[in-house]
Amino acid sequence: MFSPYGLVLGVYEKDKDDNGMCLTEAAAAFDRSVSGKLSEILSVSGPPLKKGKSRIFYGLHQDFPSVAVVGLGQKGAGVCGKEHWDNGKENIRAAVAVGCRQLQDQEIAHVEVDPCGDSQSAAEGAVLGLFEYDELKSKKKTLVTPRLYGSGGDEAWEKGVLYGEGQNLARRLMEAPANHVTPTVFADTIKQKLSPFSDKVIVHKRAESWIEAEQMGAFLSVSKGSDEPPVFLELHYSGNPDSTQAPLVLVGKGITFDSGGISIKPSSGMDAMRADMGGAATVCSAIVTAAALKLPVNIVGLTPLCENMPSGKANKPGDVVKAKNGKTIQVDNTDAEGRLILADALCYAHNFNPRAIVNAATLTGAMDVALGSAATGVFTNSDWLWERLHKASVITGDRVWRMPLFQHYTRQVTESALADLNNVGKYSRSGGACTAAAFLQEFVTAGHWAHLDIAGVMSNKDEVAYLRKGMSGRPTRTLVEFAAALASES
Prior knowledge:
This protein is α/β, with parallel strands linked by helices. Helix content is 36%, strand content 20%. The protein has helices spanning 25-33, 37-44, 87-105, 119-130, 155-175, 183-194, 208-213, 217-223, 278-293, 338-349, 365-371, 383-396, 407-414, 432-441, 476-488; strands at 5-11, 54-58, 66-71, 79-80, 85-86, 110-113, 145-148, 201-206, 231-238, 248-252, 254-258, 298-308, 319-322, 328-331, 356-361, 376-380, 400-403, 421-422, 449-453, 459-460, 470-471. The model has no long low-confidence stretch (mean pLDDT 95). One of its GO terms (biological process) is proteolysis.
């Protein structure tokens, strides 16, 4: 079957004093190869292309029957202090994504992409923009493998492909139905993804007996409501085995389906709770990506995996359970289960003398109310850690925003009638994301710890131009960029 080739080329918005065409270097080279036909047709085909818009032309070149020209916005756009991201990189990601999608919709399977002056961002835009979860549908989107146009091998392009594929792995895990991705299937999938790197990665798939022996009573109390057995997935990536430096520990919430338990959720929208393991998906995908990139850093990944279901064995409001560190917890809301499984995982994380602990979790609807999908909320006890997470997010465009860890919130979870802690704040809905973070801090003694509440960025409607509607896989790339930056520090 004949599969035509397509090409994505970039064009900048004209400067006020510029009457000529503002083509990228690659687009200008293409234009010369077709004797100026591209410039000519752009000048007569309508108004100048705006940022993120595209136009397809046919018959310009025998090797590329279809050429999608995309608007990159202003040339030289850089980091925006107000937006806390790099406008130039985001413009490239969005433009390349829309061009690739247009060609994909025409069933063009081979697409070459203009590097647009930043081949990593172009690769990310292409790989992220083309992804759609259709594995369970009879009719599927055309499978497109984007390639860099105009040159041979390019390390930045390959890096961008791996960044994009990492986030797509998280999206695939989060999007899959809960009966297809159980705790056991999740762990097996990650183990398979890491198998090519077995010389640097050790995977421990801990069973219920091990969890009991570790006295993870909070985790077990959540898992007992489901017939699916819990799994504690432990990953060890030794990217710098000769280093005496302590590892970065990444911890992810792995609720593969969250019904709310006895405190059951409303049925409307409950299907999206198949993605309540988004923290585990992003953390594990970041480690898969770090291994693929061969980052010279040591990382430990910890993900408690289970379902939160209502049954005769499930937690009941008012029950008291004991965490690994001996603290007792009054469970007044069984739908605040993520903090229970993370409590035990965070305690266990300290066994590795961590350089830093970063946990990610779709923890609270309150985080979505506070920030929406604009940024991941970060609660941290460390300015050092915050600065590095923030710097990484500016580069990736997958932003983070610092939230407070005041004693004001700690008091609301430490005043409990029956136990040391309550799993919901004293004033219920008020400051829900903050009281959840304060709860987690009760299980942390490390000097560098950050809690990433990713509930608001779990899914995408149309907010991120280079992601289709569905589960987002955010902030996988920010975690990878953060780990890469740590690797470069002595």
